[in-house]
Amino acid sequence: MGKVIIGISGGVDSSVSAYLLKEKGYKVIGVTFIQSEENKDTVDMDDAKKICNYLGIEHKIYDISKEFKEEVISYFLEGYKKGITPSPCVICDEKIKIKKLLDICMEENGDYIATGHYCKINRENKFHRPLLEISEDRFKDQSYMLYRVKPESLEKIIFPLFGYKKNEVRSIAEKIGLKVHDKKDSQGICFAKEGYIPYLKEHLKDSIKKGKFIKEDGTVIGEHEGYQLYTVGQRRGLGLKLPEPVFILEIRPETNEIVLGEYEKLKRKKIKLINISLNVPLEELLSLEVIGRPRFSSQGFLGKLLRENDDIYFEYREENYQNSPGQHIVFYYENLVLGGGEIK
Q1: What is the pLDDT of residue 41?
Q2: Helices and strands per DSSP (H, E), number in the chain
Q3: Which amino acids are annotated catalytic?
């Protein structure tokens, strides 16, 4: 069947994925990454070792903390310093997890890599290339997070959990005796376990300074704790007592000001894209009406990609409120992932 290098996190999804691969006859090697000093000696790391031993598969540990700091943590911190809301998990999947697994696969003369993502690969479609497709279980679908994984990489990836629901995966884990069958899913950002605000305060320190909340006309209406600690669209946690609800419309790092206003002012019909990663040539997409999901939790909105001079935009059929700078918008056509980019 071939050799598969699978990422083992210590959770139930990757554990059952490894089991399913072994049951199909693959030679399986489990790989766990040390991403930082904080996750070097953790319960997850210990669980990963025990799971591989229990399943009777080889287990290897790789220290990727240097790459993780350069590609993910720096991206995260720089985003908030710019006054935007970054999505580190999307970048991590592209530049760290998938990339490193593919590198290890080559070193080990492996045939495939695998992860515990709930994803489906469509290999026969109108675009004539492997593309991710929204899985049947929309609640667990993770195609959004992996939109930056290229078709040539998908040729080497297996997603064993395709077609399974979470409760089914937990049942399999319990049936085969895995102690992690009822382990809680990880929440939030892996390197900021206490939350992103305490993490930012710890790492940005003195650069976080109090500033002014202002109206669009420049009128000062209050004081904030530091622009890096807020996001566009935020309403709660502003610490203001005003007669009407207000939302963050704009963050201005250069003056340490945060502009507040009515919810309606958040509406956008056309957005500029940067850091674009398309899985189908742009020329093939310009004539299509596609669905754009401007955040992971979004159901998406119809619209069209546009090229204006050297810039790429997405124009919605109708305005919406979900476009926070720094977040990723992912494009779908007939449930196929076409690619996406960051919202400017």
Answers
A1: 59
A2: 10, 17
A3: 92, 190
